[in-house]
Amino acid sequence: MISRAAPRGKPALGPFPPPAPSLDPPRRHPRGRAMPMEKTFNAAEAEPRIYAAWEDAKAFAAGANASRAETFCIMIPPPNVTGSLHVGHAFNNTLQDILVRWQRMRGFDTLWQPGTDHAGIATQMVVERALAKEGNEDRRTMGRERFIERVWQQKVESRGNITGQLKRLGASCDWDREAFTMGGAPGDPDRDSGAPNFHDAVIKVFVDMFEKGYIYRGKRLVNWDPHFETAISDLEVEQVEVDGKMWRLRYPLENGETYEHPIEFDEEGRPSDWETRDYLTVATTRPETMLGDTGVAVHPTDVRYGHLIGKTVRLPIVGRSIPIVADEYADPDKGTGAVKITPAHDFNDWDVGARTGLSAINVMSTTAAMSLKGEDFAAGCDPDDIARAIQMFDGIDRYEARDSIVTLARDEGWLDGIDEDRHMVPHGDRSKTAIEPYLTDQWFVDTAKIVQPAIDAVRSGETEILPEQDKKVYFNWLENIEPWCISRQLWWGHQIPVWYGPTFDENNENVIAPDGTYFCASSIDEVQAKAEAHYSKLLGDQITVEIEQPGLPKPMHNASGVAYENGTVRLASVVLTRDPDVLDTWFSSGLWPIGTLGWPEQTDELKRYFPTSVLVTAFDIIFFWVARMMMMQYAVVGQKPFDTVYVHALVRDEKGKKMSKSLGNVLDPLDLVDEFGADAVRFTLAALAAMGRDLKLSTSRIQGYRNFTTKLWNAVRFAEMNGVYDAGAPTQYRRDADVLQTANKWIVGETAKVRETVDEALANYRFNDAANALYAFVWGKVCDWYVEFSKPLLNSEDTEIVAETRATMGWVLDQCMILLHPIMPFITEELWQTTAAREKMCVHADWPTYQATDLVDEKADAEMNWVIALIDGIRSARAQMHVPVGLYIPVQALEFGDAARAAWTRNETLIKRLARVESLSEINEMPKGAITIAAEGALFCLPLADIIDVAEEKARLEKTLAKLEKELAGLNARLSNEKFLASAPEDVVEDTRDAAAVKQDEAAKLKAALDRLADLE
RNA sequence: GGGUGAUUAGCUCAGUGGUAGAGCGCUUCGUUCACAUCGAAGAUGUCGGCGGUUCGAAUCCGUCAUCACCCA
Prior knowledge:
This protein is of the alpha/beta class. Helix 1 crosses helix 25 (about 825-835), helix 20 (about 680-685) packs across helix 21 (about 700-720) and helix 24 (about 800-820) packs antiparallel against helix 25 (about 825-835). Mean pLDDT is about 85; it is low at about 1-35 and about 555. The chain starts with about 40 loop residues before the first helix and ends with a helix. The radius of gyration is 39 Å and the shape is elongated. The chain binds one RNA strand through helix 13, helix 21, helix 23, helix 27 and helix 29.
């Protein structure tokens, strides 16, 4: 390392040494340091510095460090542009970053595509709240143009907010390619920045899908959010259980009809008494909708009402005569068995109405106030009744109207009763207000037409969904797909590319609908051409088409005529008006994979990276996003959007509740990063990644992994203090190098094993397996054993041994940094660069490919395991027998096989050091008062007559023996079972035999020791 | 009502047919020159109940119980 020129023990004087020659990427950060490393990693200081170095080096750019042809591409699930990072994002992006960093180090041509979502309702809500808080005029007063301008302003202000937070986590996205789902839309200040024009892509898709017949306009019942005054999709509705009431209302039968209704029942529940009724009682949780009732349904087999089917009741208040219809939707066992039907305000009733031919009368406004001025409301009713109803209820909020109607019903005697009732009420997931089923014209994607390729792709394995169980969820939803309502009555979003013009009567003379004809096109020029062609052909004249301009007053009429010489008035021009609605946010995010890569241009990136490799997402947006991306990519480009969908858990709070702002249980990942460092947070999330569907985050766990970073740091610090980096960067490990020391051979083999485990785990998205394997290796093997083993070797008189051990340790620790880098990028980069001058940054270090079969030395492995078992045995015996920790004790070998003797000899210094052994001698007879330790091929005694208690040693041996014998009994039982020998695989039988033999041997030794102890007494 | 999943150490949970695991917590001991954000040693499980398949079940099947989530 060039800058650390000062010899050990002599602090450097004077200015920092000159920096390393300029490299790209820079070799190390410019902190010369002659002092030993600090005791801990200063994450707060280092993380921003390291991240800046990566960015300066363009380390995350698409294709950076690529050394092979294969590509690896992940599309980030775009967070809301005005949002902030929550733990779910942290988890989601940590997993993506691990994969991307891993593949980048492997030399794949990687792209992690970042960006944000314009999030229609959510963003509009944020801005409206901001306006209210600032005391500004509201959206309606501002008007659409100024409001949109204000939202763009908000977008610019929020820019970098969430992406900055992702950077703090270490996310290695190609930020130069940052995309936005409304990029390029009118008003975008970055419209000419050269970024992919997402807006044009979205509009083109709409037009294409419209022309293919995948998109249609229709009058349907939709979920209406009265707060935002927009339609929302089924998925944006959440059911909330609320305390409410069930009101029973009496609708009088017309024309003197009556029926017998049971009022008393015998012990077996059979009716025993009846009364004659001239009304039907219906039960409802929403009395205000009765104004729109157009029928009453009874079950076709209901004996009470059979003869009434086809008769009518008179709707109170309105006086509308409505039919009694037969439909199986009416459950004879529920309530009275008669159900009021309001097709315009209830999805079930809509279906009943469709089956039985009932009309739908809309009685509410867009804000869910009663709205009774429609012609269909008054049709067929007494004008006086209608006038009274309008006077009493028109313009009244739905809940006030409910109370008034109930009061009126009580006063007029048609309230039958009130029951307490707890039931589910649909709410808008953003507005949290009760949604209103509402009859409007909306745009729909005819999902049934495009769903099949999305199903087939997963069915055939073309696209893999992991874990397996989420496929079921995916299929279940797609196979029962409903039309997707994509129009939103919002201002913030992609405005629908449809323009309306007049429709003429059959003689092409009079306008019968001013906006009854529509044209779909991706530009004004195109729509003008289309409309001119249409009207010119229709009217047999050259027609000029004008487009209504935003901000200008709307023309009074949509068709204007000029007088011709012969006196007839012929049309000269029409004016088209654009559909004011915008598209559902998920329509545009459904195009994320192709839109971010520049489609419809056949860009280089599109060719290279599409279809993408893997989508990493939480299961809660499988429907919202994953399924729709599948459908839309197939519908638009006829290809799958990704090879694999990896679905992960939702992060929940300690009680297992979904974190949400309204519950106030949100953990801020940035607080955790501040406290523990990004690496610890990332490692924790990786380690928890497989834990079922819920992931409960606790700070004690993060703290534990923070400690792990410190452990790694100090292992490297130890190496540095012991001259491992004196000769510069560790070199490639060579199998034929002069590695003679068993401990060195052993740790090299262990390193190869963990490399295989990590690769295997990451290839299968088993992040927890990778994290746990690395944790166990670094802490349990490298730190607990190898560093300890190395101490006598590094202090050896033999310079060959010192050199070999330094080289091995340097290599092993380099491997730790590399293998840990995808999970803990900051500390590994810091260690990588501060320990030595390097060819490349850690972020671009070559991921190793060595195999355990090449690097594991079976003999060294066996020998070190023997040493470790012996040290464990001595330590355990010492601790249990209360031998003072600091006391070095003599050890005697009673039995000493050749292999054991060789193993001891080769590793004597480290056994002595770690087990605190003073000396070894060989004996022929068990001394009096000794602790016995059985090892493979040897029996050791600790002659400590002065210290130990014979009874206590006896108890210790008995306990060990009891455990051993229990295990042995199990093994022997299996081995004596002929069916086991016959049926079990050979290697299992072999393993069982070996294990039994070893335990048998150990047990025999312990028994002998116990016998000798008995002799003592 | 329909669907999906869960039930393993005090807590949070890994483990999908072959001798029950991790982290945290707990107990005892330790100022050994990488690390007290540490080290050494230790305790704790009829793997929800019952039945079945199997040489062998935490793991596969059935059933019951309890809980959670999604959809009506």
